[in-house]
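Before relying on records like the one below, remember that each one covers exactly one chain. Contacts with other chains, cofactors or solvent are not represented anywhere in the record.
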Amino acid sequence: MTFAIEYLGQLEAFAARGPLPKVRALHLPPVHPQWDNRGEFCALELDDGSIGQSYVLFDSALQRLHAASESLALPGTDALALARQYATGQGPLRELGFAAANALTQCLFQRAGYVPQDSGGSLGNLQPAGGESIGMIGLFKPLLEPVLRSGAHLTVVELNPDLITESPGYRVTLDASELATCTQVISTSTLLLNHTLDRMLQHCHHARWFGMLGPSAGCLPDALFARGVSLLGGSAITDRTGFVDALRSGGSRHAFTRKFSLTPGNYPGFDALLNRIGD
């Protein structure tokens, strides 16, 4: 069973406990943001204020969402029905479905009174050592410096051939099999969106630690932990107005969010959260 199917199954169980909020709005970044790396994610907001994010730079999804934003008529729609598009939808509907699923996860956390633990830093619990082979799935440019500063050797696996390069301390490759020698791996959450998680994990069988980070890593982690993921690090919105304004203008959103991290040791589990809500 894929992660997407397992994730949606949990949200279906959540929906069985009572009515869920409808979609309030879709917030899109500019098609051409002023600054790099600030126009990669959309945000879907529900009527209760819950917000879920999704990466939108696959297959021109952002441009297509801008073009179709009015015709989609999202306000007032069923959030769970939209979330199902994460597993079955094509094109931008997949991104919208993932954002809706992540928004419903935030709704679940709120109703259960659960606040994820603050992250220990930009690298999560990754502790690279000198001479160690570290893997990175998806090029995290802000994380290059702290990894390289440790003296570790970094292998970055990318889908974009334009990013292939070899620089002091790290190399970028398209060959995922090179992750097999890495003892720790850090990944973007886009693996969940392009449904490559299980395939990439097969190449990481020697890794003692696997962390997944990113603004769209706001999902339920149970199925990830069951697959051997060590940490899920996402972003929670602390200032709705500031966040939405920054996203829509292409500005920095850091001041309006806080980073959190979920691990098998600090996360209570989906069943425990559901029991907090009751029937």
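The chain has two domains: 3-117+239-254+269-277, 133-226.
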